[in-house]
């Protein structure tokens, strides 16, 4: 019976020792966790501050890049506008030159047409004159021929 009691006390003592050992281990573990948590909390604040600085730097760089992009875009639009204006001016100049050339061609063609028309009119007058002269000549020749024929007929009749 004493042996059983000793065994019961031994089990009880072993359980108490195990419980105290676990309590000590828990305390050590809690201390380690507290220290780790404190270290992590301090590092978290520092890491958070570093990340905030990085975010601020990136934000500033983004603003600079956005401003640069806007300036470049405005400069690009101004250049394109200048090119469009220059192109319009060139087109307008080319159109004006074309219209002037068309007017010169029209004037030259009208002058040429009037000159040719004048030549044709002069040639027509000349031809009318020639035809009239030819008609008179033919009439004279016809009259002369009739007269000769009449003289010849008269001479033949009276001979």
Automatic annotation (TrEMBL):
<keyword id="KW-0969">Cilium</keyword>
<feature type="domain" description="Dynein regulatory complex protein 1/2 N-terminal">
    <location>
        <begin position="1"/>
        <end position="80"/>
    </location>
</feature>
<comment type="similarity">
    <text>Belongs to the DRC2 family.</text>
</comment>
<feature type="coiled-coil region">
    <location>
        <begin position="48"/>
        <end position="82"/>
    </location>
</feature>
<dbReference type="GO" id="GO:0003352">
    <property type="term" value="P:regulation of cilium movement"/>
</dbReference>
<keyword id="KW-0206">Cytoskeleton</keyword>
<comment type="function">
    <text>Component of the nexin-dynein regulatory complex (N-DRC), a key regulator of ciliary/flagellar motility which maintains the alignment and integrity of the distal axoneme and regulates microtubule sliding in motile axonemes. Plays a critical role in the assembly of N-DRC and also stabilizes the assembly of multiple inner dynein arms and radial spokes. Coassembles with DRC1 to form a central scaffold needed for assembly of the N-DRC and its attachment to the outer doublet microtubules.</text>
</comment>
<protein>
    <recommendedName>
        <fullName>Dynein regulatory complex subunit 2</fullName>
    </recommendedName>
</protein>
<keyword id="KW-0966">Cell projection</keyword>
<keyword id="KW-0282">Flagellum</keyword>
<keyword id="KW-0963">Cytoplasm</keyword>
<dbReference type="InterPro" id="IPR039750">
    <property type="entry name" value="DRC1/DRC2"/>
</dbReference>
<dbReference type="Pfam" id="PF14772">
    <property type="entry name" value="NYD-SP28"/>
</dbReference>
<dbReference type="GO" id="GO:0070286">
    <property type="term" value="P:axonemal dynein complex assembly"/>
</dbReference>
<keyword id="KW-0175">Coiled coil</keyword>
<dbReference type="InterPro" id="IPR039505">
    <property type="entry name" value="DRC1/2_N"/>
</dbReference>
<dbReference type="GO" id="GO:0060285">
    <property type="term" value="P:cilium-dependent cell motility"/>
</dbReference>
<dbReference type="GO" id="GO:0005858">
    <property type="term" value="C:axonemal dynein complex"/>
</dbReference>
């Amino acid at each position: 019976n004493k042996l059983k009691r000793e065994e019961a006390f031994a089990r009880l003592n072993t359980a108490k020792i195990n419980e105290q050992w676990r309590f000590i281990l828990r305390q050590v573990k809690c201390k380690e966790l507290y220290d780790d948590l404190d270290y992590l909390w301090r590092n978290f604040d520092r890491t958070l501050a570093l990340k905030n600085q990085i975010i601020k730097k990136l934000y500033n760089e983004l603003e600079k890049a956005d401003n640069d992009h806007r300036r470049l875009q405005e400069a690009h639009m101004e250049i394109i506008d200048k090119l469009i204006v220059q192109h319009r001016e060139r087109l307008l100049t080319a159109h004006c030159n074309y219209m002037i050339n068309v007017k010169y061609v029209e004037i030259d063609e009208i002058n040429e047409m009037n000159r040719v028309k004048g030549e044709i009119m002069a040639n027509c007058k000349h031809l009318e004159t020639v035809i009239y002269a030819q008609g008179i000549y033919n009439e004279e020749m016809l009259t002369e021929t009739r007269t000769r024929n009449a003289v010849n007929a008269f001479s033949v009749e009276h001979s």
